[in-house]
Amino acid sequence: MAQASDETTPKDQQVETNSRQVVVNTAGADSDVEESDQDEPVEELDEDVLGDYPKDAEDIDLIHLRISSIPALKLERFPNVQRICLRQNFIIDIEGLEVVPDLQELDLYDNKISHIKGLAHLTQLTSLDLSFNKIKHIKHLETLTNVTDLYFVSNRISKIENLDTFVNVTNLELGANRIRVIENLDSLINLRELWLGKNKITKLENLGSLKHLRLLSIQSNRLTKIEGLDELENLEELYLSHNAIEKIEGLDKNINLTTLDVANNRLTKIENISHLSKLEEFWANTNQFGNECFDQLTQELGGTKSLETVYLEGNPMQTNNRATYRNKVRLALPDIKQIDAN
């Protein structure tokens, strides 16, 4: 629903092995142009799409059925329902859910929702997905204190706000929005995964309170420097591809990193990572590493016994040495298991 080139989510942003990116693949997510809020009228469905569901159903899946009205579903017929999925429909207003107060999972991915409302009574929710809608503001969610997974991928959100009561959230996905500043996350003390790819963020900041963070994905933004990560000592996966970073630095305290993605930046040296003794994946393709970086590989990663994979294609060290590149990498890293995609 967030978790290598444009923040996809663990549901919709999985690591893409060829490009080594973990992002949301959405066209036009960086545009400032407002899309029309006027949608073509949708005909109401006459048939009862829930007619075949047993009264004791716990899961309801109604995907891509042109549903525009939640009240018309008459959900009060299903007192035991725990999970509702209404993906890829035409829902504009969140309403009619007060009849299922014990609902635990609600998926409204890919509808036409502009405003968050009608959810305050769903205090048992643990998962809420509002991705791929038209939401501009995060609000009216204060009562949902049991939520652990919260998804807002590909909306029109420009500010991280109103998350103070989400102390139990472990996974927050805000990829492909219009966010410029990392802020207002101090209350998310149990957060494990933070997905911010494909926004307009210029600086790594205000992350110090996220002591339990294991994964930070911030590809396809406007970063120029690795900084602000000193207090994230439990960080295991860091995805920074498709930015404008010029130097590998600022990772002194992040000794638990197992994956470091710095692909598609402006790096010229492999440096400041020799202390990352748990590193398994180093993705640094499409930078500006020259022939001198073969020696730097040995110096920085030669002693890292856990290292399994390096991605270095698209650098001058590869493009200028096409016939000998792989052999040179193996000489630098004799125990490496995978070089690039094969």
UniProtKB/TrEMBL annotation:
It is found in: Nucleus. It comes from the Eukaryota. SMART domains: LRR_SD22, LRR_TYP. Keywords: Leucine-rich repeat, Nucleus, Repeat. Its main location: nucleus. Residues 1-44 are annotated as: Disordered. The keyword Chloroplast does not apply. Residues 15-24 have a biased composition (Polar residues). Residues 31-44 have a biased composition (Acidic residues). One of its GO terms (cellular component) is nucleus. Belongs to the SDS22 family. PANTHER family: PROTEIN PHOSPHATASE 1 REGULATORY SUBUNIT 7, PROTEIN PHOSPHATASE 1 REGULATORY SUBUNIT SDS22-RELATED. This is Protein phosphatase 1 regulatory subunit 7. It comes from Absidia glauca. The lineage of its organism: Eukaryota, Fungi, Fungi incertae sedis, Mucoromycota, Mucoromycotina. The gene is ABSGL_05337.1 scaffold 6959.
